[in-house]
């Protein structure tokens, strides 16, 4: 079964490709490499023994997509490609809406022309904004986003929802990821952020490996268990298997399907620091700093719907997330 993976050279896409190959599927990757390295392909091959077909190109290039769909018998598409840095999206909204929203529209148009109407979209818990209650269920309100990145995810969700209403033979699955962390247990693949990491786990990992002096903990005065922000961290391999479960469970069923992919457990910043210190066998230096503007106090997923309808549940612990991140980071201190 050939499945087109847009953004398949990136962090989540590459781990999903490994899981797909191991599940007997054939991923075909397209990626413009704006945030990924070509070396990823060799690592996928090292792990699985299979080098997937990779075509370098942009999802906004409709002629490129048309020729790809003409040349391959694509069963479905998992759409990871996009820009994802919140701060950068505030500075460059046009670039973010063009890449994320326009890119998704070009892709959907090319799919329709080719008669490929099964799409899984990488959305984010960011569409829930500051949640009124936790755990967050899929029917919680969406759209109160606070930055162009989050708004772009919400807009794509809306476009795809309208598409399914208008053309009910489409199968569209919106997967709302909580906080993906961790790495492949081999230590061969992991997250490789360019520049200063925006997210907690890669920052901690770079402190542990000596690339950065200390972590700034953004606020310890939230009304959470220890005053620091609480999130639902999910191991990237669990997230990857969630995509396989979605493809198998609803990927051929017409209509709109929406699932949270999280663990249902919240961990604080200091708990993550502690887990990482245990994994790497040394303390991770940190300093309490002011809150980061736009941050929420806490958020975690209700996982009931995915469990019930997809038979999928995350199984890996925070200790495994930290251990696998450390194996990746210490084996590849400068990334790929
Ligand atoms: P990533 O940056 O590692 O991967 C995205 C990939 O898409 C990169 O390899 C990049 O080169 C490619 N790409 C970007 N624009 C493209 C374009 N126009 N044409 C072709 N390729 C393009 O990011 P990731 O962490 O793997 O995230 C994958 C998806 O999941 C994104 O859509 C992201 O918004 C979403 N998501 C990520 C997180 C997270 O914390 N990592 C959380 C929620 C949702
Ligand atoms: C961020 C994005 C969100 C995106 C998600 C993807 C913001 C406001 N939100 O969410 O849109 O979908 O990443 O994973 O950027 N922290 C520190 N020090 C750091 C980094 C983070 O203390 O150097 C804290 C944060 O305050 C937060 C927690 O760690 O409490 C997690 O932060 P982060 O990894 O950036 O994820 P989110 O804020 O959940």
Characterization of the model:
The protein has 336 residues and is an alpha/beta fold. It has 2 domains: 2-181 and 233-261, NAD(P)-binding Rossmann-like Domain (Rossmann fold), CATH 3.40.50.720; 183-231 and 265-301 and 315-331, UDP-galactose 4-epimerase, domain 1, CATH 3.90.25.10. It has helices spanning 11-22, 39-48, 62-71, 86-91, 93-114, 148-166, 200-208, 236-249, 269-280, 304-310, 318-331, and strands at residues 2-6, 26-31, 53-56, 74-79, 118-124, 171-177, 179-181, 215-218, 230-231, 233-235, 255-261, 267-268, 286-289. The strands form 4 sheets. The chain has a 7-stranded parallel beta sheet with strand order 3-2-1-4-5-6-11, with helices on both faces. It has a two-stranded parallel ribbon with strand order 7-10. β1, α1 and β2 form a beta-alpha-beta unit. The chain starts with a strand and ends in a 5-residue tail after the last helix. Nicotinamide-adenine-dinucleotide binds next to α1, α5 and β5.
**Strand and helix order:** EHEHEHEHHEHEEHEEEHEEHEHH
CATH class of the largest domain: Alpha Beta
CATH architecture assignment name of the largest domain: 3-Layer(aba) Sandwich
Each distinct ligand: nicotinamide-adenine-dinucleotide, uridine-diphosphate-N-acetylglucosamine
Number of E-state strands = 13
- The CATH superfamily of the largest domain is NAD(P)-binding Rossmann-like Domain
Number of distinct helices: 11
Measure the end-to-end span: 29 Å
Task: Bin the strand percentage.
Answer: 15-25%
